[in-house]
Amino acid sequence: MTNRLWHERADALKIDGRAFIDGKRTWAVSGQFFDDHSPVDGRHLAQVARCDSADVELAVRAARTAFDDARWAGQAPAARKRVLIKFADLVVQHGEELALLETLDMGKPIKYSQSVDVNATANCLRWYGEAIDKIYDEIAPTASDSLALITREPVGVVAAIVPWNYPMIMAAWKIAPALAAGNSVILKPSEKSPLTALRLAELALEAGIPAGVFNVLPGFGQEAGAALALHMDVDCIGFTGSTRTGKQIMQMAGQSNLKRAWTELGGKSANIVCADCPDLDAAVEAAIGSIYFNQGESCNAPSRLFVEASIKEQFLAKALALIPAFQPGDPLDENTVMGAIVDVIQLKSVLGYIEAGKAEGAKLLSGGKQVQLETGGYYVTPTLFDEVDSSMKIAREEIFGPVLAVLSFTDINDAIRQANDSPFGLQAAIWTSDLSRAIKTARALRAGTVHVNQYDGDDITVPFGGYKQSGNGRDKSLHAFDKYTDLKTTWIHIS
Protein backbone atom coordinates (compact mmCIF):
# COMPACT_ATOMS: atom_id res chain seq x y z
CA MET A 1 0.00 0.00 0.00
CA THR A 2 1.34 3.46 -0.86
CA ASN A 3 2.00 6.10 1.76
CA ARG A 4 -0.87 8.19 0.37
CA LEU A 5 -3.28 5.27 0.74
CA TRP A 6 -2.18 4.70 4.35
CA HIS A 7 -2.95 8.33 5.13
CA GLU A 8 -6.30 8.13 3.34
CA ARG A 9 -7.25 5.03 5.33
CA ALA A 10 -6.15 6.72 8.54
CA ASP A 11 -8.35 9.73 7.77
CA ALA A 12 -11.35 7.48 7.05
CA LEU A 13 -10.90 5.15 10.01
CA LYS A 14 -13.90 4.70 12.30
CA ILE A 15 -12.78 3.59 15.75
CA ASP A 16 -14.96 2.12 18.48
CA GLY A 17 -13.47 2.87 21.89
CA ARG A 18 -16.06 1.05 23.98
CA ALA A 19 -15.11 -1.81 26.29
CA PHE A 20 -15.92 -5.43 25.43
CA ILE A 21 -17.76 -7.34 28.17
CA ASP A 22 -19.69 -10.58 27.85
CA GLY A 23 -19.59 -10.49 24.07
CA LYS A 24 -20.86 -6.92 23.70
CA ARG A 25 -19.42 -3.45 23.24
CA THR A 26 -20.31 -1.15 26.14
CA TRP A 27 -19.37 2.18 27.64
CA ALA A 28 -18.06 2.30 31.20
CA VAL A 29 -20.72 2.06 33.91
CA SER A 30 -19.69 5.52 35.11
CA GLY A 31 -20.07 7.00 31.64
CA GLN A 32 -16.50 8.24 31.88
CA PHE A 33 -14.12 8.10 28.93
CA PHE A 34 -10.70 9.37 27.96
CA ASP A 35 -9.48 10.85 24.70
CA ASP A 36 -6.97 8.83 22.73
CA HIS A 37 -4.61 10.94 20.61
CA SER A 38 -2.05 9.68 18.11
CA PRO A 39 1.66 10.28 18.80
CA VAL A 40 2.12 10.39 15.01
CA ASP A 41 0.57 13.84 14.57
CA GLY A 42 -1.58 14.52 17.62
CA ARG A 43 -4.85 13.68 15.87
CA HIS A 44 -7.81 12.62 18.00
CA LEU A 45 -8.41 8.91 17.44
CA ALA A 46 -11.31 8.03 19.70
CA GLN A 47 -13.09 8.43 22.97
CA VAL A 48 -12.25 5.31 24.97
CA ALA A 49 -14.26 3.85 27.84
CA ARG A 50 -12.59 4.61 31.17
CA CYS A 51 -13.32 1.40 32.99
CA ASP A 52 -13.04 1.12 36.76
CA SER A 53 -14.04 -1.26 39.54
CA ALA A 54 -17.69 -1.33 38.48
CA ASP A 55 -16.74 -2.54 35.00
CA VAL A 56 -14.24 -4.99 36.47
CA GLU A 57 -17.09 -6.44 38.54
CA LEU A 58 -19.19 -6.98 35.41
CA ALA A 59 -16.31 -8.50 33.46
CA VAL A 60 -15.28 -10.84 36.29
CA ARG A 61 -18.86 -11.95 36.74
CA ALA A 62 -19.18 -12.69 33.02
CA ALA A 63 -15.84 -14.49 32.95
CA ARG A 64 -16.64 -16.56 36.04
CA THR A 65 -20.06 -17.54 34.71
CA ALA A 66 -18.52 -18.58 31.40
CA PHE A 67 -15.89 -20.63 33.18
CA ASP A 68 -18.27 -22.30 35.60
CA ASP A 69 -20.73 -23.38 32.93
CA ALA A 70 -17.81 -24.78 30.89
CA ARG A 71 -18.92 -23.20 27.61
CA TRP A 72 -15.22 -22.94 26.71
CA ALA A 73 -13.28 -24.91 29.32
CA GLY A 74 -15.53 -27.90 28.71
CA GLN A 75 -14.78 -28.04 25.00
CA ALA A 76 -12.31 -30.64 23.84
CA PRO A 77 -8.77 -29.33 23.26
CA ALA A 78 -9.16 -30.06 19.55
CA ALA A 79 -12.26 -27.85 19.44
CA ARG A 80 -10.48 -24.97 21.18
CA LYS A 81 -7.63 -25.49 18.74
CA ARG A 82 -9.89 -24.95 15.74
CA VAL A 83 -11.27 -21.72 17.19
CA LEU A 84 -7.83 -20.29 18.02
CA ILE A 85 -6.55 -21.12 14.55
CA LYS A 86 -9.56 -19.33 13.05
CA PHE A 87 -8.81 -16.41 15.38
CA ALA A 88 -5.27 -16.32 13.99
CA ASP A 89 -6.58 -16.43 10.43
CA LEU A 90 -8.87 -13.48 11.14
CA VAL A 91 -5.93 -11.49 12.51
CA VAL A 92 -4.13 -12.05 9.21
CA GLN A 93 -7.25 -11.19 7.18
CA HIS A 94 -7.64 -7.91 9.08
CA GLY A 95 -3.90 -7.32 9.21
CA GLU A 96 -3.87 -3.96 7.43
CA GLU A 97 -6.55 -2.56 9.73
CA LEU A 98 -4.80 -3.86 12.86
CA ALA A 99 -1.44 -2.55 11.68
CA LEU A 100 -2.94 0.88 11.04
CA LEU A 101 -4.54 0.96 14.48
CA GLU A 102 -1.23 -0.08 16.06
CA THR A 103 0.76 2.58 14.25
CA LEU A 104 -1.70 5.41 14.88
CA ASP A 105 -2.14 4.47 18.54
CA MET A 106 1.45 3.73 19.48
CA GLY A 107 3.62 5.50 16.87
CA LYS A 108 5.64 2.59 15.47
CA PRO A 109 6.38 2.44 11.72
CA ILE A 110 3.67 0.83 9.63
CA LYS A 111 6.20 -1.51 8.01
CA TYR A 112 6.86 -3.12 11.39
CA SER A 113 3.25 -3.07 12.55
CA GLN A 114 2.52 -5.22 9.51
CA SER A 115 5.58 -7.42 9.22
CA VAL A 116 6.29 -7.92 12.93
CA ASP A 117 3.30 -7.19 15.15
CA VAL A 118 0.45 -8.60 13.07
CA ASN A 119 2.41 -11.68 12.00
CA ALA A 120 3.72 -12.39 15.51
CA THR A 121 0.23 -12.04 17.00
CA ALA A 122 -1.30 -14.46 14.51
CA ASN A 123 1.59 -16.89 14.88
CA CYS A 124 1.24 -16.89 18.68
CA LEU A 125 -2.50 -17.60 18.57
CA ARG A 126 -2.01 -20.34 16.01
CA TRP A 127 0.93 -21.96 17.84
CA TYR A 128 -0.89 -22.27 21.16
CA GLY A 129 -3.98 -23.49 19.36
CA GLU A 130 -1.91 -26.19 17.67
CA ALA A 131 -0.14 -27.06 20.95
CA ILE A 132 -3.10 -27.60 23.26
CA ASP A 133 -4.23 -31.00 21.93
CA LYS A 134 -0.68 -32.34 22.03
CA ILE A 135 -0.05 -31.96 25.75
CA TYR A 136 -0.50 -35.18 27.71
CA ASP A 137 -1.32 -35.66 31.35
CA GLU A 138 0.66 -38.10 33.51
CA ILE A 139 0.34 -41.28 35.53
CA ALA A 140 2.66 -41.43 38.53
CA PRO A 141 4.83 -44.54 39.14
CA THR A 142 3.01 -45.58 42.31
CA ALA A 143 2.61 -49.04 43.84
CA SER A 144 0.41 -51.57 42.07
CA ASP A 145 -2.55 -51.04 44.41
CA SER A 146 -2.87 -47.36 43.42
CA LEU A 147 -3.42 -45.28 40.33
CA ALA A 148 -2.31 -41.66 40.65
CA LEU A 149 -3.37 -39.36 37.81
CA ILE A 150 -1.68 -35.97 37.36
CA THR A 151 -3.81 -33.67 35.25
CA ARG A 152 -3.61 -30.05 34.15
CA GLU A 153 -6.69 -27.92 34.67
CA PRO A 154 -7.31 -24.26 33.79
CA VAL A 155 -6.94 -21.93 36.78
CA GLY A 156 -10.25 -20.15 36.07
CA VAL A 157 -10.44 -16.38 35.55
CA VAL A 158 -7.21 -14.84 34.25
CA ALA A 159 -6.53 -11.09 34.19
CA ALA A 160 -3.92 -9.99 31.66
CA ILE A 161 -2.47 -6.48 31.95
CA VAL A 162 -0.24 -5.52 29.04
CA PRO A 163 1.98 -2.54 28.16
CA TRP A 164 1.77 0.03 25.40
CA ASN A 165 4.92 -0.75 23.41
CA TYR A 166 3.79 -3.98 21.71
CA PRO A 167 0.03 -3.96 22.38
CA MET A 168 -0.97 -6.86 20.12
CA ILE A 169 2.05 -9.09 20.66
CA MET A 170 2.03 -8.74 24.45
CA ALA A 171 -1.70 -9.43 24.49
CA ALA A 172 -1.25 -12.55 22.37
CA TRP A 173 1.56 -13.88 24.57
CA LYS A 174 -0.88 -13.87 27.50
CA ILE A 175 -4.31 -14.59 26.03
CA ALA A 176 -3.22 -17.37 23.65
CA PRO A 177 -1.96 -19.89 26.26
CA ALA A 178 -4.60 -18.81 28.78
CA LEU A 179 -7.45 -19.33 26.30
CA ALA A 180 -5.95 -22.50 24.87
CA ALA A 181 -5.87 -24.00 28.37
CA GLY A 182 -9.59 -23.27 28.82
CA ASN A 183 -9.55 -20.18 31.03
CA SER A 184 -11.75 -17.13 30.83
CA VAL A 185 -9.69 -13.98 30.25
CA ILE A 186 -10.02 -10.28 31.04
CA LEU A 187 -7.49 -8.20 29.12
CA LYS A 188 -6.60 -4.68 30.25
CA PRO A 189 -4.54 -2.88 27.63
CA SER A 190 -2.56 0.23 28.44
CA GLU A 191 -4.51 3.46 28.26
CA LYS A 192 -1.78 4.69 25.90
CA SER A 193 -2.56 2.10 23.20
CA PRO A 194 -5.88 0.27 23.75
CA LEU A 195 -7.28 0.12 20.23
CA THR A 196 -5.96 -3.16 18.82
CA ALA A 197 -6.95 -5.05 21.97
CA LEU A 198 -10.53 -3.92 21.54
CA ARG A 199 -10.55 -4.99 17.90
CA LEU A 200 -9.05 -8.37 18.81
CA ALA A 201 -12.00 -9.00 21.12
CA GLU A 202 -14.41 -8.66 18.19
CA LEU A 203 -12.32 -11.00 16.06
CA ALA A 204 -12.20 -13.55 18.90
CA LEU A 205 -15.99 -13.57 19.10
CA GLU A 206 -16.21 -13.94 15.32
CA ALA A 207 -13.78 -16.87 15.48
CA GLY A 208 -16.07 -18.71 17.89
CA ILE A 209 -14.79 -17.89 21.36
CA PRO A 210 -18.02 -17.76 23.41
CA ALA A 211 -19.32 -14.55 24.96
CA GLY A 212 -17.90 -13.93 28.41
CA VAL A 213 -14.73 -15.94 27.79
CA PHE A 214 -12.67 -13.03 26.45
CA ASN A 215 -13.31 -9.51 27.76
CA VAL A 216 -11.35 -6.28 27.21
CA LEU A 217 -11.38 -3.39 29.70
CA PRO A 218 -9.58 -0.21 28.64
CA GLY A 219 -8.73 2.14 31.46
CA PHE A 220 -6.04 3.35 33.81
CA GLY A 221 -3.84 1.15 35.94
CA GLN A 222 -4.79 2.72 39.25
CA GLU A 223 -8.48 2.15 38.45
CA ALA A 224 -9.16 -0.89 36.26
CA GLY A 225 -5.76 -2.53 36.76
CA ALA A 226 -5.78 -2.23 40.54
CA ALA A 227 -9.37 -3.49 40.72
CA LEU A 228 -8.39 -6.61 38.79
CA ALA A 229 -5.34 -7.22 40.99
CA LEU A 230 -7.42 -6.86 44.15
CA HIS A 231 -10.48 -8.79 42.99
CA MET A 232 -11.25 -11.86 45.08
CA ASP A 233 -12.62 -13.81 42.12
CA VAL A 234 -9.67 -13.37 39.76
CA ASP A 235 -7.54 -16.50 40.03
CA CYS A 236 -4.43 -15.41 38.17
CA ILE A 237 -2.90 -12.20 36.89
CA GLY A 238 -0.31 -11.93 34.14
CA PHE A 239 1.40 -8.55 33.93
CA THR A 240 3.96 -7.02 31.61
CA GLY A 241 5.14 -3.50 32.40
CA SER A 242 7.31 -1.51 34.77
CA THR A 243 9.01 -3.02 37.77
CA ARG A 244 7.38 -0.44 40.04
CA THR A 245 3.89 -1.44 38.95
CA GLY A 246 4.80 -5.13 39.02
CA LYS A 247 5.70 -4.84 42.69
CA GLN A 248 2.37 -3.18 43.42
CA ILE A 249 0.46 -5.92 41.62
CA MET A 250 2.23 -8.65 43.59
CA GLN A 251 1.39 -6.84 46.82
CA MET A 252 -2.27 -6.55 45.77
CA ALA A 253 -2.36 -10.24 44.87
CA GLY A 254 -1.21 -11.03 48.40
CA GLN A 255 -3.64 -8.57 49.98
CA SER A 256 -6.59 -10.15 48.19
CA ASN A 257 -6.99 -13.86 47.49
CA LEU A 258 -3.32 -14.74 47.05
CA LYS A 259 -3.94 -15.04 43.31
CA ARG A 260 -1.05 -16.21 41.19
CA ALA A 261 0.83 -13.13 39.95
CA TRP A 262 3.22 -13.52 37.04
CA THR A 263 5.29 -10.49 36.10
CA GLU A 264 7.45 -9.71 33.09
CA LEU A 265 9.09 -6.40 33.94
CA GLY A 266 11.83 -3.96 32.93
CA GLY A 267 15.30 -4.40 31.60
CA LYS A 268 18.65 -2.70 31.16
CA SER A 269 20.26 -5.30 28.95
CA ALA A 270 24.03 -5.49 28.56
CA ASN A 271 25.60 -6.11 25.15
CA ILE A 272 29.27 -7.11 25.46
CA VAL A 273 31.51 -6.91 22.38
CA CYS A 274 34.99 -8.39 22.71
CA ALA A 275 38.00 -7.56 20.55
CA ASP A 276 37.85 -11.04 18.99
CA CYS A 277 34.26 -10.52 17.82
CA PRO A 278 33.89 -12.74 14.72
CA ASP A 279 32.01 -10.12 12.68
CA LEU A 280 32.34 -6.54 13.87
CA ASP A 281 29.96 -5.18 11.23
CA ALA A 282 27.27 -7.62 12.37
CA ALA A 283 27.85 -6.61 15.99
CA VAL A 284 27.49 -2.93 15.12
CA GLU A 285 24.35 -3.50 13.06
CA ALA A 286 22.79 -5.55 15.87
CA ALA A 287 23.68 -3.00 18.53
CA ILE A 288 22.30 -0.06 16.58
CA GLY A 289 19.32 -1.83 15.04
CA SER A 290 18.19 -3.36 18.33
CA ILE A 291 18.38 -0.23 20.46
CA TYR A 292 16.58 1.97 17.95
CA PHE A 293 13.97 -0.59 16.90
CA ASN A 294 10.49 0.42 18.09
CA GLN A 295 11.98 3.83 19.03
CA GLY A 296 13.93 2.11 21.81
CA GLU A 297 10.63 1.34 23.55
CA SER A 298 11.48 -2.31 24.20
CA CYS A 299 12.14 -3.88 27.60
CA ASN A 300 14.84 -6.11 26.08
CA ALA A 301 16.64 -3.31 24.20
CA PRO A 302 20.44 -3.61 24.60
CA SER A 303 20.75 -0.15 26.11
CA ARG A 304 24.14 -0.77 27.78
CA LEU A 305 26.88 -1.45 25.23
CA PHE A 306 30.21 -2.70 26.64
CA VAL A 307 32.97 -2.54 24.00
CA GLU A 308 36.51 -3.75 24.59
CA ALA A 309 38.75 -0.70 24.71
CA SER A 310 41.07 -1.77 21.87
CA ILE A 311 38.22 -1.75 19.31
CA LYS A 312 35.97 0.95 20.74
CA GLU A 313 36.96 3.75 18.37
CA GLN A 314 36.53 1.49 15.34
CA PHE A 315 33.20 0.29 16.66
CA LEU A 316 31.92 3.81 17.31
CA ALA A 317 32.94 5.01 13.84
CA LYS A 318 30.89 2.22 12.28
CA ALA A 319 27.97 2.88 14.63
CA LEU A 320 27.86 6.60 13.89
CA ALA A 321 27.85 5.83 10.18
CA LEU A 322 24.69 3.74 10.61
CA ILE A 323 22.73 6.14 12.80
CA PRO A 324 21.52 8.47 10.00
CA ALA A 325 19.44 5.59 8.62
CA PHE A 326 17.44 5.59 11.88
CA GLN A 327 16.30 9.20 11.89
CA PRO A 328 12.60 9.35 12.84
CA GLY A 329 10.10 9.80 10.04
CA ASP A 330 6.42 9.57 9.20
CA PRO A 331 5.22 6.25 10.69
CA LEU A 332 2.72 5.88 7.82
CA ASP A 333 5.57 5.96 5.29
CA GLU A 334 6.62 2.37 4.52
CA ASN A 335 10.27 3.49 4.27
CA THR A 336 10.35 4.78 7.86
CA VAL A 337 12.27 2.60 10.33
CA MET A 338 11.87 4.72 13.48
CA GLY A 339 8.61 6.39 14.41
CA ALA A 340 7.15 8.44 17.24
CA ILE A 341 7.46 8.19 21.01
CA VAL A 342 4.14 6.97 22.42
CA ASP A 343 3.02 10.18 24.14
CA VAL A 344 4.17 13.48 25.59
CA ILE A 345 4.75 11.95 29.05
CA GLN A 346 7.19 9.41 27.66
CA LEU A 347 8.76 12.07 25.43
CA LYS A 348 9.54 14.26 28.44
CA SER A 349 10.92 11.26 30.31
CA VAL A 350 13.31 10.36 27.47
CA LEU A 351 14.46 13.96 27.06
CA GLY A 352 14.99 14.14 30.83
CA TYR A 353 17.32 11.14 30.73
CA ILE A 354 19.27 12.71 27.88
CA GLU A 355 19.77 15.86 29.95
CA ALA A 356 20.82 13.73 32.93
CA GLY A 357 23.43 11.99 30.77
CA LYS A 358 24.90 15.33 29.77
CA ALA A 359 24.85 16.62 33.33
CA GLU A 360 26.65 13.56 34.70
CA GLY A 361 29.49 13.89 32.21
CA ALA A 362 28.66 11.39 29.47
CA LYS A 363 29.81 12.44 25.99
CA LEU A 364 26.93 12.94 23.55
CA LEU A 365 28.10 11.74 20.15
CA SER A 366 24.80 11.77 18.29
CA GLY A 367 21.18 12.83 18.59
CA GLY A 368 19.61 13.89 21.83
CA LYS A 369 16.99 16.21 20.34
CA GLN A 370 13.27 16.42 19.80
CA VAL A 371 12.47 16.96 16.13
CA GLN A 372 9.48 17.39 13.81
CA LEU A 373 7.62 19.56 16.28
CA GLU A 374 5.58 20.96 13.40
CA THR A 375 3.83 17.59 12.93
CA GLY A 376 2.21 17.67 16.34
CA GLY A 377 3.82 14.29 17.06
CA TYR A 378 6.60 13.18 19.43
CA TYR A 379 9.93 12.38 17.78
CA VAL A 380 13.43 12.03 19.23
CA THR A 381 16.61 11.53 17.22
CA PRO A 382 18.63 8.33 17.82
CA THR A 383 20.93 9.17 20.69
CA LEU A 384 24.38 7.75 21.52
CA PHE A 385 26.43 8.54 24.61
CA ASP A 386 30.09 7.57 25.01
CA GLU A 387 32.30 7.65 28.11
CA VAL A 388 29.45 6.42 30.29
CA ASP A 389 30.12 5.17 33.81
CA SER A 390 28.06 2.40 35.40
CA SER A 391 27.06 4.74 38.21
CA MET A 392 25.33 7.17 35.84
CA LYS A 393 21.56 7.36 35.67
CA ILE A 394 21.51 6.52 31.96
CA ALA A 395 23.42 3.31 32.72
CA ARG A 396 21.26 2.20 35.62
CA GLU A 397 17.65 3.15 34.88
CA GLU A 398 15.39 1.93 32.10
CA ILE A 399 14.90 4.81 29.66
CA PHE A 400 12.50 3.20 27.18
CA GLY A 401 13.63 5.44 24.36
CA PRO A 402 16.25 5.63 21.57
CA VAL A 403 19.23 6.17 23.89
CA LEU A 404 22.39 4.02 23.84
CA ALA A 405 25.01 4.19 26.59
CA VAL A 406 28.52 3.02 25.61
CA LEU A 407 30.98 1.77 28.22
CA SER A 408 34.42 0.24 27.69
CA PHE A 409 36.32 -2.61 29.35
CA THR A 410 39.70 -4.30 29.21
CA ASP A 411 38.93 -7.41 31.26
CA ILE A 412 35.93 -9.65 30.46
CA ASN A 413 35.44 -10.38 34.15
CA ASP A 414 35.04 -6.67 34.79
CA ALA A 415 32.52 -6.43 31.94
CA ILE A 416 30.53 -9.29 33.46
CA ARG A 417 30.66 -7.66 36.89
CA GLN A 418 29.35 -4.36 35.50
CA ALA A 419 26.72 -6.12 33.40
CA ASN A 420 25.42 -7.92 36.50
CA ASP A 421 25.55 -4.76 38.61
CA SER A 422 21.94 -3.95 37.81
CA PRO A 423 18.57 -4.57 39.45
CA PHE A 424 17.42 -6.00 36.12
CA GLY A 425 18.23 -9.28 34.42
CA LEU A 426 16.14 -9.61 31.27
CA GLN A 427 18.59 -10.17 28.41
CA ALA A 428 22.29 -9.87 27.60
CA ALA A 429 24.72 -10.67 24.79
CA ILE A 430 28.35 -11.64 24.29
CA TRP A 431 30.26 -11.32 21.00
CA THR A 432 33.46 -13.39 20.82
CA SER A 433 35.22 -16.01 18.70
CA ASP A 434 36.31 -17.89 21.80
CA LEU A 435 33.75 -20.62 22.47
CA SER A 436 34.93 -21.19 26.03
CA ARG A 437 34.67 -17.48 26.80
CA ALA A 438 31.19 -17.38 25.27
CA ILE A 439 29.95 -20.28 27.38
CA LYS A 440 31.55 -19.05 30.59
CA THR A 441 30.21 -15.54 30.07
CA ALA A 442 26.71 -16.78 29.24
CA ARG A 443 26.71 -18.83 32.44
CA ALA A 444 27.95 -15.88 34.49
CA LEU A 445 25.48 -13.31 33.19
CA ARG A 446 22.37 -13.10 35.36
CA ALA A 447 19.77 -12.76 32.64
CA GLY A 448 16.81 -14.76 31.36
CA THR A 449 18.21 -14.83 27.82
CA VAL A 450 21.85 -14.55 26.77
CA HIS A 451 22.61 -14.11 23.08
CA VAL A 452 25.93 -15.23 21.59
CA ASN A 453 27.20 -13.46 18.47
CA GLN A 454 23.73 -12.07 17.70
CA TYR A 455 20.94 -10.12 19.36
CA ASP A 456 17.15 -10.41 19.22
CA GLY A 457 17.10 -14.07 18.23
CA ASP A 458 13.49 -14.96 18.87
CA ASP A 459 10.98 -17.77 18.43
CA ILE A 460 7.64 -18.65 19.97
CA THR A 461 9.15 -21.97 21.10
CA VAL A 462 11.51 -20.40 23.65
CA PRO A 463 10.52 -18.73 26.94
CA PHE A 464 10.80 -14.97 27.44
CA GLY A 465 11.39 -13.49 30.87
CA GLY A 466 14.10 -12.39 33.24
CA TYR A 467 15.96 -12.68 36.50
CA LYS A 468 15.93 -10.37 39.52
CA GLN A 469 13.64 -7.33 39.19
CA SER A 470 12.88 -8.17 35.58
CA GLY A 471 10.14 -10.39 36.99
CA ASN A 472 9.21 -13.97 37.79
CA GLY A 473 7.12 -14.94 34.77
CA ARG A 474 7.85 -16.54 31.43
CA ASP A 475 5.87 -15.81 28.30
CA LYS A 476 6.01 -17.95 25.12
CA SER A 477 6.89 -21.64 24.73
CA LEU A 478 5.08 -24.54 26.40
CA HIS A 479 6.28 -23.17 29.75
CA ALA A 480 3.59 -20.48 29.52
CA PHE A 481 0.98 -23.15 30.26
CA ASP A 482 2.52 -23.47 33.73
CA LYS A 483 1.16 -20.02 34.55
CA TYR A 484 -2.40 -20.64 33.47
CA THR A 485 -2.99 -24.21 34.65
CA ASP A 486 -3.16 -26.01 37.99
CA LEU A 487 -1.83 -29.51 38.59
CA LYS A 488 -4.30 -31.91 40.16
CA THR A 489 -3.49 -35.32 41.58
CA THR A 490 -6.31 -37.86 41.55
CA TRP A 491 -5.39 -40.84 43.76
CA ILE A 492 -7.31 -44.03 43.09
CA HIS A 493 -7.04 -47.05 45.37
CA ILE A 494 -7.21 -50.36 43.50
CA SER A 495 -8.78 -53.02 45.73
Q: In a nutshell, what does this entry contain?
A:
This protein has 495 residues and is of the alpha/beta class.
Give the overall shape. Answer: globular
Task: Give the neighbour order of strands across the main sheet.
Answer: 14-17-18-13-12-20-21
Oligomeric assembly: single chain
Number of DSSP strand runs:
23
Query: How much helicity do the residues have?
Result: 25-40%
Kindly report the average pLDDT value.
97
Instruction: Give me the secondary-structure category.
Output: alpha/beta
Largest sheet: 7 strands, mixed
Counting DSSP H or I runs of 4 or more residues, the number of helices is: 16
Taking all Cα atoms into account, the compactness measure Rg is 23 Å
Written description of the protein model:
By secondary structure, the protein is of the alpha/beta class. It is 39% helix and 20% strand. The protein contains 16 helices and 23 strands. It has helices at residues 3-12, 53-68, 77-93, 95-106, 110-131, 167-180, 195-207, 221-230, 243-255, 280-292, 312-322, 344-359, 393-396, 412-420, 435-444, 481-484, and strands spanning 19-21, 24-26, 33-37, 44-49, 138-139, 146-154, 157-161, 184-188, 214-216, 236-240, 260-264, 270-273, 304-308, 363-366, 370-371, 379-380, 383-386, 403-409, 424-425, 427-431, 449-452, 467-468, 485-493. The strands form seven sheets. A seven-stranded mixed sheet has the order 14-17-18-13-12-20-21, with helices on both faces. Helix 13 (393-396) links the parallel strand 17 (383-386) and strand 18. Helix 2 (53-68) packs parallel to helix 8, helix 3 (77-93) crosses helix 7 and helix 4 packs across helix 5 (110-131). It is globular, with a radius of gyration of 23 Å. The termini are far apart. The model has no long low-confidence stretch (mean pLDDT 97).
